[in-house]
Amino acid sequence: MTINILTVGDVTGAQGCEYLRRRLPTLKRMKAVDLCIVNGENSAAGNGITPASAQELFNAGADLITTGNHVFRRREVYDYLDHSLSVVRPANVYAGNPGRGFAIADFGSVRVGVFNLLGNAFMEGANPFTAADDVLKELTDCRIVLCDFHAEATGEKRALGFYLDGRVSAVFGTHTHVQTADEQILPGGTGYITDLGMTGPVQSVLGVKPPIIISKLKTGMPERFDVADGECMLNGCLFTVDRATGKTEAVERINIRG
Ligand SMILES: [Fe+2]
């Protein structure tokens, strides 16, 4: 018996939320998805995540939401993070920050733990390797565990994948908004992809209107990041995991457009 777990890359702005709402229900039916994990840290207009944008992701079909380095950008989400059992912030932030670093989905015969980590390279996450060790001590009753590693550097992401190989069911990267083609099953049975990619506008720089980013990089002056319009895509990865062993049996990269 297996369980199908769909992971969806960073949903960006209202455009990304709307596209997710349009495409996710059919995708879940087609792939017989049992659990859907969506990275929502860029789901609010103006970046970050708010209670309203989280609710949009749940309405679209997300079961659990992971986040990343922008999770604390909006003050109105702090209280929500403290009380939600389905929205996860990175585990390796400062002690006492709002929210919690993992969530558990209970399927009766099997419990699925999901945790979120920030990278350390070009980012501010405290040592993600030892943080993963600490979180796993909290998830010993979960036969299936997935890690959303929200990080910038591909080397750091692949290293964490191998570090957790055989100890978790899957490690999927988020944050770069560019999908990698290295989906695989590591030797110990852990499903892996360096980055899921993004759910948002195709003709963009990581979701933002290109002229805005070009201007910022050309002049060094701050800019308001408006999400681009036009055709959208839904990027993610489907992990088929054995319920008895917790090992991944199949990995399928998802890239839907139009
Ligand atoms: Fe991010």
Annotate the secondary structure layout:
Layout: E1 2-8, E2 10-11, H1 13-30, E3 35-39, H2 51-60, E4 64-66, H3 78-83, E5 102-106, E6 111-118, H4 128-138, E7 144-150, H5 154-164, E8 170-174, E9 184-185, E10 191-193, E11 198-201, H6 210-219, E12 232-242, E13 248-257
Helix pairs in contact: 1-2
Bound molecules: fe (ii) ion.
Residues 41, 68-70, 150, 175 line the site of fe (ii) ion.
Written overview of the protein:
The protein is of the alpha/beta class and 258 residues long. It has a single domain, classed as Metallo-dependent phosphatases (Purple Acid Phosphatase, chain A, domain 2, 4-Layer Sandwich), CATH 3.60.21. It is 26% helix and 28% strand. The chain has six helices and 13 strands. It has helices at 13-30, 51-60, 78-83, 128-138, 154-164, 210-219, and strands at residues 2-8, 10-11, 35-39, 64-66, 102-106, 111-118, 144-150, 170-174, 184-185, 191-193, 198-201, 232-242, 248-257. The strands form two sheets. Strands 1, 2, 3, 4, 11, 12 and 13 form a seven-stranded mixed β-sheet that branches. Helix 1 runs parallel beside helix 2. It is globular, with a radius of gyration of 17 Å. The model has no long low-confidence stretch (mean pLDDT 97). Fe (ii) ion binds at residues 41, 68-70, 150, 175.
Which spans have pLDDT < 50 for at least 5 consecutive residues?
none
CATH architecture name = 4-Layer Sandwich
The number of helical runs is 6
Oligomer: single chain
Overall shape: it is globular
Helix content: 25-40%
Features:
single chain; 258 residues; Purple Acid Phosphatase, chain A, domain 2; six-stranded mixed sheet; 6 helices; 13 strands; globular; binds fe (ii) ion
